[in-house]
Design goal:
Number of strands: 5
Number of helices: 18
Helix content: 55-70%
Structural class: alpha+beta
Strand order of the largest sheet: 1-2-3-5-4
Largest sheet: 5 strands, mixed
Length: 534
């Protein structure tokens, strides 16, 4: 046998043996609370252990579940017939396999807290539905084998199902988080926050579940004191931290209730534990759903930051390409055209050569037209004045060009305190003004427009107005390229764009930008501590 095969076999054996031992000992703990029947407990963490293991390691771990259950059954106070043991083992393995299969198939994920959709599939299929497999097969096997009476089958089924369901709900997210989390030591502030939340939960658990005086105040409402601290953990801590907190709090509550302490303790121990499990299931379901929603929100925010950074880079590359092409046209093609134009104009023409003179003039006219077109392309791609003198001078040249070819009178006014801004930010401002004036030229049918740029501390306000035909902003698609381009550029630097327009009353484009924020967008500097510890 090759070394790689031996290593794989050793790992497989360790995995199966470790999972079987874990199943056995957690089952032992659960059976310590089996007050109604020696084989039926309202607290059954092995269900969550098995389902979590299958979600992490795959269906190959089912032998460990069967092995652990066999060992647990044989070590019990009363042994069961082999057919009943086989049926119960089959039911326990099938509920874990079916639950994991439903979660993976219908949500496409293996982590119950990945997002709200995955958690709801986990809650509906894994917790509520698939756990009925083990409860139904198990209770029927006990009754058929004579280990339980059919008269108590309903209560046995409810106890079995609730133990499996809460075990799946409380333990599965913890097991998945343990084996899939990329643990990093959190920053000091997060550690302090975690200690405060842990101490808060410890105090609440003591006064609600462990203080002998707590039995004087009976009722489910006392357990709701846990909700604020657990909700805080759901929004601020990792999946591992939250699932650990929920599991530990539930264990403390179960221990206190089993010992006759807390608001859920009653004369009948089994009924007390059923009430405790129902309460913890409701609390855990709510808190874990909040955690799944928060995880989805964090992922969406991270994707949004990534998209913004990608868009920023694309715009930057576009500006670089425009600058390079503009320089190439200016230093290459334009020089040749200007040289050819000057050469044609210097050609001596005889006074009687009217035809040749006409041709030379036509050639000179065509060359001049090509020169003007080249200059226009340079201005639209990347005006030299923008790099050499700044955005204010570039906008003045832009307005002069519009007034020349668009038959449009444009007033320009500015009141700013800066001389130059970061080059990429200047490019953004120029493009937004340029796109706004392009919209005026193409769509507004205006005769007069104005551009006003003012600075108020670290805020820059750009207002582009026209007296054109106007429109209803609510009826214009947000996918319209011109307006969308302005909005996206403003959003990349943390700015906002407001469109004010009415039919027949012109249009105003109001842009507000934080000029102290560079284009190294906050996504690069604000990778929040929370997202690092998801």
């Amino acid at each position: 046998m090759k070394f790689a095969e031996r290593t794989h076999l050793l790992r497989w054996t360790i995995l199966q043996g470790g999972l079987a031992l874990a199943y056995f000992w957690t089952g032992k703990l659960g059976l310590e609370l089996a007050f109604m029947h020696s084989h039926v407990s309202p607290v059954w963490p092995p269900t969550g252990l098995a389902m979590g293991a299958i979600l992490v390691f795959g269906y190959r771990v089912w032998p460990a579940i069967v092995l652990g259950l066999f060992a647990l059954t044989m070590s019990g106070v009363s042994a069961l017939p082999w057919p009943a043991m086989l049926a119960i083992a089959f039911g326990n393995a099938m509920e874990a396999i079916a639950g994991a299969w439903c979660i993976r198939t219908f949500s496409g994920q293996s982590n119950p807290l990945f997002d709200a959709k995955t958690f709801l599939w986990f809650l509906g299929a894994g917790v509520f539905v698939c756990t009925t497999i083990s409860a139904t097969i198990g209770v029927a096997s006990l009754c058929v084998a004579g280990a339980a009476s059919w008269e108590t089958s309903r209560q046995l089924w409810w106890t079995w199902w609730l133990g499996d369901a809460t075990g799946a709900l409380l333990v599965t997210p913890f097991v998945v988080a343990v084996f899939t989390s990329d643990f990093r030591w959190p920053p000091r502030a997060k550690v302090v926050e975690g200690v405060i939340v842990a101490l808060t939960l410890a105090l609440i658990c003591y006064f609600v579940f462990l203080d002998p005086k707590a039995t004087e105040f009976r009722g489910f409402s006392q357990t709701l004191l846990l909700m604020p601290a657990l909700a805080w953990a759901a929004f601020h801590f990792s999946k591992l931290g939250l699932s650990s907190a929920v599991l530990v709090v539930s264990l403390v509550g179960v221990w206190g209730t089993a010992n006759g302490l807390g608001p859920l303790a009653a004369n009948d121990a089994n009924s007390s534990l059923l009430a405790a499990q129902s309460s913890f299931g409701l609390i855990a379901g709510t808190i874990l759903l909040l955690a799944a929603l928060r995880a989805q929100q964090r992922r969406d925010e991270k994707q949004l930051r990534y998209d913004q950074e990608l868009l920023r880079q694309l715009i930057e590359l576009q500006e670089q390409d425009r600058r390079m092409v503009a320089h190439d046209i200016h230093d290459g093609l334009m020089q040749d055209l200007v040289g050819a134009h000057m050469l044609v104009q210097s050609v001596p023409i005889a006074s009687d050569a009217a035809t040749e003179d006409s041709r030379v003039n036509r050639i000179a006219g065509l060359l001049q037209k090509a020169i003007n077109e080249g200059r226009r392309l340079i201005r639209e791609m990347r005006p030299m004045v923008l790099d050499e003198q700044g955005v204010i001078e570039a906008i003045q040249h832009l307005i002069a060009d519009f007034e020349e070819h668009a038959e449009l009178v444009i007033a320009f006014d500015h009141d700013v305190k800066f001389e130059r801004l970061e080059a990429r930010l200047e490019g953004m401002i120029f493009r937004m003004v340029q796109e706004s004036l392009n919209n005026v030229e193409k769509h507004a049918k205006a005769k007069y427009a104005s551009v006003r740029i003012t600075q108020d501390g670290g805020q820059l306000k750009i207002v582009v107005r026209d007296d054109g035909k106007g429109f209803n902003p609510a009826k214009v698609s947000r996918r319209r390229f011109g307006l969308r381009s302005i909005r996206e550029r403003a959003r990349l630097v943390g700015g906002t764009v407001q469109i004010e327009s009415e039919p027949g009353k012109g249009t105003s484009v109001i842009i507000q930008l934080p000029i102290v924020t560079t284009l190294a967008s906050r996504s690069l500097r604000e990778e929040s501590d929370d997202s690092r510890f998801d």
